[in-house]
Amino acid sequence: MPLLTQIFLDIYGWRGAMLLLSGLCLHSLPCGAMLFQKVTEDKMPKEKINHLISKTSSSFNNTNSNENDIPDPPNISKLFCAVSALFCSPLLSNLSFIAQVLVPAIVWGYTFTGWLIYIVSFSLSNGTTMREASIVGTCGGIGLTAIRMVLPPLNQVMTYKQLMYISSLLSAIALALTNIFNTFIGMCLMSVLFGAGFGILGAELYIAIKEITSEKEYLHAVAWANLIHGFAAITSGFLTGWLFDMTGSFVASFGVLAAISLLTTVSLGFEDIWNGFKNRHRSAAI
């Protein structure tokens, strides 16, 4: 995508490039409109079915609805209940959800966005052309796509937590070594490695949600993960700008992002240690 964006900028200018990118994003609208939930009779509450039957019958006979009809709640009430249920979710007191979902979502938002902000400027500061700098950014997408293609067989032989550990280490190593391998080829290789690390994290995050939540909690868990990830991605722009202004060095900036990447390893390790302690304590009590 960075390479395509650069081509748009070169040919159509800033406004034309933004218009084309907006058009690409707009394609998600008809795709989303095609996704709808098919309501079947066996999934519909019995009270709702009786209400619809009564409503149809009274309409046919031109009579008023009887007093036992159950009115549909207004949409604003449905929205309020949904938002209240989301923010009062018991998931927020679940250590596994915090360690395996929320912390990785924060890491994903901060480090991936920070890397996107830094990588082109860092490449230019090391003597590359604008086209080469955009290729360095594109290599991150290549690494992400490549690892997603081999993830299904990897998930057959490794657990999602093991892959999340690997993701954290790959991303941290790539960020730390970017300052050392600062030639064009070296930066491309580090971008591929970084993209691979976050390709793993993005996929395993949703596997973790499915494994640790029930069917009723799943949508709440996904909503929380995306909310936290979005907040982290938004604030990452301010954090990375402030960080570079304070340090004036890409070395320090990439070092901080590498440290943030390791937070996934820290959170998963803490959960494993805590669960081991609880299991030993329970065994001793028995």
Describe this structure in words.
The chain has 286 residues and is an all-alpha fold. It contains eleven helices and no strands. About 6% of the residues have low confidence.
Summarize the helix and strand pattern as letters: HHHHHHHHHHH
Shape: globular
* Strand residue percentage: under 5%
- Judged by helices, strands and strand pairing, the structural class is mainly alpha
State the total count of DSSP E strands. Answer: 0
Which stretches are poorly predicted, pLDDT < 50 over at least 5 residues?
Answer: 39-44, 59-70
Give the gist of this structure.
This protein is mostly helical and 286 residues long. Helices cover 81% and strands 0% of the residues. α5 (95-125) runs antiparallel to α6 (130-157), α5 runs antiparallel to α8 and α5 (95-125) packs antiparallel against α11 (263-285).
Keywords:
mainly alpha; 81% helix; 0% strand
In terms of topology, how is this protein built?
Elements (H helix, E strand, L loop, with lengths): L1 H25 L1 H6 L12 H15 L14 H13 L7 H31 L4 H28 L2 H19 L5 H29 L5 H30 L2 H12 L1 H23 L1
Helix pairs in contact: 1-6, 5-6, 5-8, 5-9, 5-10, 5-11, 6-8, 7-8, 7-10, 7-11
